[in-house]
Amino acid sequence: MTDASKYCLGCMEESGGIAVCPHCGYPQDRKPDSVLHLTPGLILHNRYLAGRVLGDGMPKYLNSPDTPLFKKGQALFAFDSIVGTWASPEMPGTGYVLLHHLFGEVNGRKGAWGHALGGMGAITQAMAAAASEAGARIRLEAPVQRVLVDSGRAVGVRLESGEELHAPLIVANVGPKLLFTRLVAREDLPEGLERRMAQYRTGSASFRMNLALSGLPRFAAHPGPGPHLASGIILAPSIDWMDRAYTDSRTHGWSRAPVLELLIPSLLDDSLAPPGAHVMSVFAQHFAPTLPDGRPWEAARVAAVETILETIERFAPGFRTLVVGQLALSPADLEERFGLVDGDIFHGQMGLDQLWAARPFPGAGDHRMPLNGLWLCGSGAHPGGGVTGLPGRNAARAILKARRRALDA
């Protein structure tokens, strides 16, 4: 069992439980801030409160770069710069990833994120209902084996069952690397596309867990129930922590002190768990898509899970006794189960060379692929990953515009 009292409320280094930390000078009897709840090394985070960090309500002890809580305020924003991104926040390009995660709105509140009542499946169910109402026919358990190509044009798909379906347009919601390395035959690829796909970078270094809990966790930073538990809970007390997590994953295969975001959606939606019980999702960085020693993820999954649970235990003593069920998905599991090449949750890294008109590659930024009749509408298209619906909306508008032009010609 972890003794949380040994760790400083400011820097999370071992302080021996004395009144003033010998490492950073933070007084251990200081109460958690009523707005930010940043101690001890724990960021109880949502985007609304994050916005207040830059507002008039910013506490004075966050104004100085030398204070531990200022560094945690930095970490609050730095986390969003590495979500689904195998990088340190110190690396070029991560600033865009932070900006990307501040796009959008929920119910008119700009920059906010929301929970889907009924779970994430409620979103796809709503989409399916709207599509069916508009006349779409949805087939399940019908995996595609091959995109059919005739004279340089995509004309249909062949299912794994052998059935062939033909259509004037094929719109793909899979990642571009999966599409052009597995679903389109090599001999059907336009010239140069095989080389482009070899250079297309995938791998978000993400590990996902879903946990069933017998009760709510108690964090040393802010024990007891409260609205903070309904926010995103970031376990990454500093940029240095995130940087070490990245470098560790490059040498060891995964972070031995990983960056974690915890969500307890059952606090907002009681349909997800029985009374008194809860569900928690764990988003973990950084876990290499391919382990450096050649081991398969199947052989390393248990050790990685142990690392994640021990990290949570460090911040919330007694947490492991609450876990009554779990589902763990390594990068390899994400690829096998969801078709995410290298476990990339964004269908391709969000580097500046793979964004905007260059997403997924130059010449295909308008959702129209090099094969005539083939379009891309998923996260591998502009503007990229996240549950925004924007890639699909943009693709639909581009397709309708092209059809109108064809009819007018």
Descriptive overview:
The protein has 409 residues and is of the alpha+beta class. The chain folds into two domains: 42-138 and 205-343, no CATH class; 142-201 and 351-408, FAD/NAD(P)-binding domain. Helix content is 27%, strand content 17%. Strands 1-9-10-11-8-12 form a six-stranded antiparallel β-sheet, with helices on both faces. Strands 4-5-6 form a three-stranded antiparallel β-sheet, with helices on one face. A hairpin with a 2-residue loop joins β2 and β3 (109-110). α5 (176-183) crosses α6. It is globular.
Tally of helical runs: 10
Strand order of the largest sheet: 1-9-10-11-8-12
| Secondary-structure element string | EHHHEEHEEEEHHEEHEEHEHEH
User: Helical proportion?
Assistant: 25-40%
Largest sheet: 6 strands, antiparallel
The radius of gyration is 23 Å
- What percentage of amino acids are in beta strands? 15-25%
Mean pLDDT: 85
- Note the gap between the termini: 73 Å
- Low-pLDDT stretches are 1-5, 31-62
Query: What's the number of domains?
Result: 2
Number of E strands: 13
Structural class: alpha+beta
Q: In one word, what is the shape?
A: globular
